[in-house]
Amino acid sequence: MEFDKNVPIYIQIMDEIKHRIIAGALKAGDKVPSVRDLAEELKVNPNTIVRAYQELERERLTETKRGMGTFIRGEKELQGDKLKEEIGLSVAKAFIQKMHDAGIKDDEIVLFIKKAIDEEN
Amino acid sequence: MEFDKNVPIYIQIMDEIKHRIIAGALKAGDKVPSVRDLAEELKVNPNTIVRAYQELERERLTETKRGMGTFIRGEKELQGDKLKEEIGLSVAKAFIQKMHDAGIKDDEIVLFIKKAIDEEN
Amino acid sequence: MEFDKNVPIYIQIMDEIKHRIIAGALKAGDKVPSVRDLAEELKVNPNTIVRAYQELERERLTETKRGMGTFIRGEKELQGDKLKEEIGLSVAKAFIQKMHDAGIKDDEIVLFIKKAIDEEN
Amino acid sequence: MEFDKNVPIYIQIMDEIKHRIIAGALKAGDKVPSVRDLAEELKVNPNTIVRAYQELERERLTETKRGMGTFIRGEKELQGDKLKEEIGLSVAKAFIQKMHDAGIKDDEIVLFIKKAIDEEN
DNA sequence: GTGGTCTAGACCACA
DNA sequence: GTGGTCTAGACCACA
Fold first, then answer.
1. Angstroms from D42 CA to nearest CA on chain C
2. How would you classify the pairing of strands C62-65 and B62-65?
3. D63/B8 CB distance under 8 A
């Protein structure tokens, strides 16, 4: 995994875990890699993993059992889709807010989206 | 003006200037407020204004004429719309990148946008 | 039994044993459940039960007879009440210390107690 | 300041700040000592202070202004008393919960409080 | 000067 | 083995 140097690594690790949940690679009840293992895998200091896991816990996405590890929270099947829904909606809202701030109206937003998607391909 | 504490103030000031251009309050050739005036108006450290103006200059949106002040660049009429176009597109691209990262496909993106706009109202 | 994740499980198990003594379910001379049985009953790692029993022994609440098991100490009748008295007083003292630390005087403490009891109902 | 080795230092630092607010030594709007200054004063690693300040911010007791420092939040006069009220009530509730868990009834609680206060003197 | 992040690594309680 | 806390110290963005 490569890190974007403009974003704190612990945030990028949180995102990575979320992506794994959305992709279905991690389900509710699953054990997340141990701090040391993930630190080695990502070539990152264990403290940074600890930080990421603590923030995930604060977001109630994971649960830590003392001496046993960190686990994905929530009900088995729903977790991935619910998370995708939540993230998608909150990212979309922040985006719309930014566009409004720039003086761009709702119908123009859709045009920008289409153009941006076009240019990606 | 209130600042979002999660975003550097100098960025928010740059945005403020851009908004004024898009809104037509500042046009190409206009003189931007002096560092001292704007600092007082926004109740902000003058260094922060200096930083914002330097970044605007780096983006080639303004130009500084020695001893005369800082001015909006470009041709009179087009500046506002061109800026809106540029900002809209770059914000939209960043948004789409984030959605893809979260495992959301292009057609789902449109749905999220609609839902987000709905919930705003 | 559900565990509060902010308190070590072995402490919560010690408390559970104490509660059983206070409630009269365990009396002086009674044999405490075997490590294996209690581990199964509470769905907990047997090591954790061992730890809890060791601490209870250190507090001189239980005693282990080689090859026979672990037993509640003391004279038959008094044990429950004495324990309740001890726990009540030590918990109360710790509480008062905390309140003093927060700058709350003795007469205010009583008011807080009354309010807290009221709000519980 | 001496630290109780059973409680994380960052928690004890948070408590210290709260005490200063309750005592009126820190009021809303006041600047809290800088990370480095307090680290030196308390002979503690700066990271530990950072941690304490971040948690205080999460509790919405303080507010951080980038590059300027950390400040006590809230309205000027009320802060100290409100905080005292909040802490007092939450500590009292936790205490009553613990007493109930130990099989001690409300009217007995008051007796324990009195006895504990007596023995303190 | 101010707080934020990160590394390297120690020591600890807990299960 | 597992996560939690802490030190010592570097480097950074921001005001």
1. 18
2. unpaired
3. no
Angle, alpha carbons D115-D117-D120 (nearest 5°):
110
Question: Could you tell me which residues are beta bridge partners of residue B64?
Answer: B70
Judge whether residue A78 has pLDDT over 80. Answer: no
pLDDT digits over C103-120, tens only?
A: 899 999 999 999 999 987
Q: Which residue(s) pair with A71 in the sheet?
A: A31, A63
Instruction: Enter the tokens of residue B24.
Output: 């037509």
What are the phi and psi torsion angles at D70 (to 5°)?
Answer: -115, 135
pTM: 0.85
| AA identity, residue C94 | A
Note the CA–C1' distance, A1 to E6, in angstroms.
17
pLDDT confidence tier of residue B24, bands split at 50, 70 and 90: confident
Going by their DSSP bridges, the two strands B62-65 and A69-72 should be labelled as unpaired
Kindly indicate the confidence band of residue A42, based on its pLDDT and cuts at 50, 70 and 90: very high
3-state secondary structure at position D16: helix
Distances in whole angstroms, Cα of residue C24 to Cα of each of B27, B58, C17: 85, 79, 11
Distance D61 CA to F7 C1' (A): 27
* Cα Rg of chain D (Å, integer): 17
pLDDT of residue D76: 58
Which nucleotide comes closest to D39 if you measure CA to C1'? F7
